[in-house]
Amino acid sequence: MAVRPICAYPEAVLRQKAKPVETIDDDLQLLIDDMIETMYAAPGIGLAAPQVGISLQLFVVDVTGGQDANALQTYINPEIVSTEGRVREDEGCLSVVGITGSTPRAERVVLRGLNREGETVEVEADGLLARAFQHEFDHLNGMLFFDRMGVVGRDLIKRKYKRAQRRQADR
């Protein structure tokens, strides 16, 4: 297992629709292990394959940040099959470091996909887990959290991020 570099906005892979996983093999298992290690090292609560430069429909989530060994979930070729309600909360992203914004999401979702053993799983989630599912699913479709905001909010996030990048470069 290895910690992989996390792609930062505006890298092109973050804006591409990821390809479906066709084979669950040893290489994919290694990628999953690396993504889990990378997510925990960041630290984060979710990570999609495009965020480590791999355009595949795959993400890992653990909203406990590693505090509950049973909370770690892996989804291959996921789909959101239903949504309910609307909430708006602050959200951030490992690919847009240091920037958060009030992002609208469904309050509850049902997510279906394959686990790392290739078995179909379907999970109903609300709260932070529902938000994490939607956030990571968006990555698989080339979207970032600020794409869910209105024009004003999206532009504000982009300006904040560019300013933060300039400050970082000046150091």
From TrEMBL:
Binding site for Fe cation: C93, H135, H139
Gene3D superfamilies: Peptide deformylase
Recorded family membership: Belongs to the polypeptide deformylase family.
Database matches in InterPro entries: Peptide_deformylase, Peptide_deformylase_sf
Keywords, sorted A to Z: Hydrolase, Iron, Metal-binding, Protein biosynthesis
Protein name in UniProt: Peptide deformylase
Keyword Transcription (UniProt): no
Cofactor: binding comment: Binds 1 Fe(2+) ion.
SUPFAM superfamilies: Peptide deformylase
Transmembrane segments: none
Gene that encodes the chain: def
Known role: Removes the formyl group from the N-terminal Met of newly synthesized proteins. Requires at least a dipeptide for an efficient rate of reaction. N-terminal L-methionine is a prerequisite for activity but the enzyme has broad specificity at other positions.
Record-level Gene Ontology MF annotations: metal ion binding; peptide deformylase activity
Cofactor(s) this protein cannot do without: Fe(2+)
Reactions it catalyzes: N-terminal N-formyl-L-methionyl-[peptide] + H2O = N-terminal L-methionyl-[peptide] + formate
Catalytic center residues: E136
Keyword Protein biosynthesis found: yes
NCBIfam families recorded: pept_deformyl (TIGR00079), PRK00150.1-3 (NF001159)
Biological processes annotated in GO: translation
Catalytic activity, EC: 3.5.1.88
Top-level enzyme category: hydrolase
